[in-house]
Design a protein that fits this description.
Length: 309
């Protein structure tokens, strides 16, 4: 049996507009790497990044703690985390660390868990950073591609994305609050109009149909959210202009990436992605905000053999 393993997990975008807490898409933009090594006892965390080193306060540490307890594993585990995904920008940073850790732990101890169990353990780690358990980002990071998360009981459906789907992400250079996900979840309305629910459901169905039929235009045209996006957009400087500019430049659909503040535009491989990115930058500039532009495509997941060493 192996004594050490390294797993790489991709960044992700959640919600895709109307699919709040249900949809996730793995992105090849950035990656986190987690190395687990068997030790004699305890859980130790090694990282050069600004993340907590107490297991219960660390996404990866909490995953290991929960898996050790569940499977009554006596061995200790050293967790080495190399962050490639910035925390707090709506790109699934904590989820990638959690996903890589759950996949690594499964392989390190030969548990042979099914995909839903791995996603469930990875999701349990989200409590350390997001304050609550949700599975959209972790499911995408574990499995890759486009995911639909059903809950009670947990069941993740994975769909292979169109090969010509591309995304342009504008990451604003702003200070994000600690526990940002908790803050951005706090502004979401507790009650919604039935007509809004119907509209979001129809658009969410369009997104699924678009992924099933490998149709980027149907995906993009369905990325319309009348519930969560309007409640959160005030947290992102210049959001309205960023979205408007991207659509004018040829984007098929634009929305907040996860809990934000990054904004994601969906397009085709044949689109002028640099033009879309520049238009988004100009949108942020109207609010005196600089941003980083990342052009990417869907990614494989941490569970894929190519991501382990």
């Amino acid at each position: 049996m192996i004594s050490k393993i390294t797993i790489k997990a991709p960044s992700s975008t959640a919600n895709l507009g109307p699919g709040f807490d249900v949809f996730g898409l793995a992105l090849d933009a950035l990656y986190d790497k987690v190395t687990l090594t068997k030790t004699k006892s305890g859980i130790t965390i090694i990282t050069s990044d600004d993340v907590p080193t107490k297991p219960e306060n660390n996404t990866a540490g909490l995953v290991v703690k929960n898996m050790k307890k569940k499977f009554k594993i006596k061995d200790g585990v050293e967790i080495k985390i190399k962050k490639g995904i910035p925390a707090g920008f709506g790109m699934g940073s904590s989820a990638a660390s959690a996903a890589a850790t759950a996949v690594a732990f499964d392989k390190l101890f030969g548990l042979k868990l099914d995909k839903n169990s791995i996603v469930e353990f990875a999701g349990s780690g989200e409590k350390a950073s997001a304050g609550s358990i949700h599975y959209d980002n972790v499911a995408a990071s574990v499995l890759g591609g486009f995911v639909i998360v059903k809950t009670n009981p947990l069941d993740v459906i994975r769909i292979e994305p169109p090969t010509n789907l591309r995304m342009c992400i504008a990451v604003p250079k702003i200070k994000v609050p600690k526990k940002k996900t908790k803050v951005s979840r706090g502004v979401i309305p507790k009650k919604i109009k039935l007509t809004d629910s119907v509209l979001n459901l129809s658009n969410a169905s369009g997104i699924v149909a678009g992924f099933m039929s490998k149709d980027p235009e149907l995906i993009g045209n369905s990325i319309k959210d009348v519930i969560v996006e309007p409640a959160r957009q005030h947290l992102i400087p210049g959001f309205t202009k960023v979205k408007e500019n991207a659509l004018k430049a040829g984007a098929l659909g634009v929305t907040i990436s996860g809990a934000g503040p990054s904004v994601i535009a969906f397009a085709k491989k044949s689109s002028n992605l640099k033009k879309i990115g520049l238009a988004m930058s100009k949108g942020f500039a109207t609010a005196n905000t600089k941003c980083q532009i990342i052009i990417c495509k869907p990614s494989i997941g941490a569970i894929d053999k190519k991501n382990s060493s």
